[in-house]
Amino acid sequence: MVDVQHWLTALPPVAVYLIVAGVIGVESMGVPLPGEIVLVSSALLAATGVVQPEWVAVAAAFGAIVGDSIGYAVGRRGGRPLLARIGRRFPKHLGPAQLARAEQSFARHGVWAVFFGRFVALLRILAGPLAGALHVPYRRFLLANAAGGLVWAFGTTYLLYSVGRAAEHWLKDISWAGLVLAVLAGIGSTWWLRRRARRLEQADTPGEAEPVGATAADR
């Protein structure tokens, strides 16, 4: 994350906002990219005055909402076979077991999985395509998607920004300590939402997940 932050520091602010929106947007379409790392790094940059926190948050929310909506459209058009192809393309991140587990969580908890999924890497990537493949009504999906995206983007950005500013003020000569405090604050800011999201997954039926698209004859 420190390397990402140093790399972003060399860019003009507009480029940072575009990268935040682009990386988070592509991740939300179903491609495993480090969207949360980019957001945390940009929020820490905002604490140093390199970029503006409100624009970081706006860019992150925009990327999350638009990316999920595109993922929804792609999933609705491609269905479960598309999710299986995504799993074959990214077997380490979105293999059959991961896809099946995400699908079970989504099918069981509906739009709540969209909202809380924004705080969990697996569901953050698959929420849009899964919602489309499962034919969740778009209005319900959009409401949960927008709420989750806004809470995640603005909450993460402003908490890290506030803690980073405080760390910079009180720990000017110990920059590493300020960074550690900011990172810990970022973890704490999403702790209860992550815990809730994990409970959603744990509430699913135990046992080995079935591959996405399995037929009754395969079971």
UniProtKB/TrEMBL annotation:
Membrane among keywords: yes
Keywords: Cell membrane, Membrane, Transmembrane, Transmembrane helix
Top-rank taxon: Bacteria
Membrane-related topology note: Multi-pass membrane protein
Transmembrane segments: 6-26, 141-162, 174-193
InterPro entries named among the record's database cross-references: DedA_domain, VTT_dom
Pfam families in alphabetical order: VTT_dom
Residues of the VTT domain: 41-161
Localization per Swiss-Prot or TrEMBL: Cell membrane
Main location: membrane
Family: Belongs to the DedA family.
Protein name, entry field: DedA family protein
